[in-house]
């Protein structure tokens, strides 16, 4: 690959500096334009970084124009016709009627149910799919969708573009999404959203365990269990989210008013002092 360059030779290749024996025998352009060689390079980390970047660009492109949105998580395995599927559908419909765009993982089961409900109520139904080792397409009830290669890029989209999380019954994937979202709220990384669990028969045990094991061992704070709300009623899901958003808007308004008043007081004080 390298030719014998004298030790004091130098080559600049974009941000990289090569000296002496490290100078490649060809230039970047030459390698790009020459005939195709082995394709191993597409699996190298610098190339992956570009792919990751392009996923962010595509996700931001799809979602940045979306208004108020709620992400709905839940099992990929629950079948149409079951009571949980109907619950998911009803929640998707109620959220859409309340003006929220519904974002799901774009897969089958509870994701499909929420997308179907949102679409049937005339709302915007979005699916953020994930490449999996087996054949799978976005469900049929999605108006706009993107399929991601990387879980962590997709997760950023759920958090960045929704203002609430609704968590329906589900397995490891759903638990991962639930605990990531509460961790983000607990650590103040996101301040603007409620997390609502739906299905007390399914989630009640987890809620009790959080109180009994986690709280009693002191591994969470006394107010941390309040980060999660639990209900069975689709109407209440929407009420919890709406109320949280109204409270947040009020707090923001008060903070802004406080800042403006503080500024006025400082200006008046300065004028009085002649400074
Ligand atoms: C039939 C089957 C297993 C399909 C998997 N297809 C999937 N498509 C899209 N998102 C998924 C899929 N599986 C898991 N997820 C993600 O993980 C959660 C569901 O995982 P689980 O089924 O609870 O653990 C969903 O909220 C979703 O964001």
From TrEMBL:
Residues 1-10 have a biased composition (Basic and acidic residues). Its EC number is 3.2.2.n1. It comes from the Bacteria. It holds the Pfam family Lysine_decarbox. Keywords: Cytokinin biosynthesis, Hydrolase. It catalyses: N(6)-(dimethylallyl)adenosine 5'-phosphate + H2O = N(6)-dimethylallyladenine + D-ribose 5-phosphate; 9-ribosyl-trans-zeatin 5'-phosphate + H2O = trans-zeatin + D-ribose 5-phosphate. Residues 1-38 are annotated as: Disordered. Belongs to the LOG family. This is Cytokinin riboside 5'-monophosphate phosphoribohydrolase. The lineage of its organism: Bacteria, Bacillati, Actinomycetota, Actinomycetes, Streptosporangiales.
